[in-house]
UniProtKB/TrEMBL annotation:
Gene3D superfamilies named in the record: NusG, N-terminal domain (3.30.70.940)
Coiled coil regions in record: none
Cited CDD domains: KOW_NusG, NGN_SP_RfaH
Domain NusG-like N-terminal: from-to ranges: 4-99
UniProt entry keywords in alphabetical sequence: Transcription, Transcription antitermination, Transcription regulation
Name the UniProt record assigns to this protein: NusG-like N-terminal domain-containing protein
Organism: Sedimenticola thiotaurini
């Protein structure tokens, strides 16, 4: 194995991203946990950008990877076959550039207005086009979706829609 330094991906236990980060950093590992600052009305104003995932910087042949899987909060190291998945430095840089001055990401859905065209990015209606109607309770939105020739009001997670 070469002494190549690269970013890898940790799969954490549910809602234990911060615990895993703290424990890994205490062991001397370099980690990165991108976080979202949610609206002030939210019960959890700060949340992980990628729930259950944490980036870790490791050097093949130098870093001891065995303590990682037994670290509190860690479920496993994400692998492709038998090799740990490698994340390109450019992707980590792009994620970091999109953070604000405090290091947090902001959800773009705060800027949606009634009548905006949106696209569903996940779920059973992924890639469908809809019209934004209103923001609901924490992280929920009402959209108008044409199905079978009829406009339907559907409540979805605000994370599942993006401006068209």
């Amino acid at each position: 194995m070469s002494n190549q330094t690269a970013w890898h991906l940790i799969y954490t236990k549910p809602r234990q991203e911060r615990t895993a980060r703290e424990q890994l950093e205490r062991q001397g590992y370099t980690t990165y946990l991108p976080e979202i600052r949610q609206s002030s009305q939210s019960h959890k104003p700060i949340a992980p950008l990628f729930p259950r995932y944490l980036f870790i910087r490791l050097t093949a042949g130098r870093d001891d990877w065995t303590p990682i899987r037994s670290t509190r909060g860690v479920s496993s190291l994400v692998r492709v076959g038998m090799k740990p998945a490698t994340i390109p430095d450019q992707l980590i840089s792009a994620i970091r550039k999109r953070a604000d001055a405090d290091g947090f990401h902001r959800l773009g859905n705060d800027t949606l207005k009634m009548g905006d065209r949106v696209r569903l990015v996940s779920g059973p209606f992924a890639d469908y086009e809809a019209i934004f109607s209103e923001k609901r309770a924490e992280n929920r939105a009402i959209i108008l979706l044409n199905l079978i020739g009829k406009q339907n009001r559907i409540e979805v997670s605000a994370h599942n829609i993006a401006l068209f």
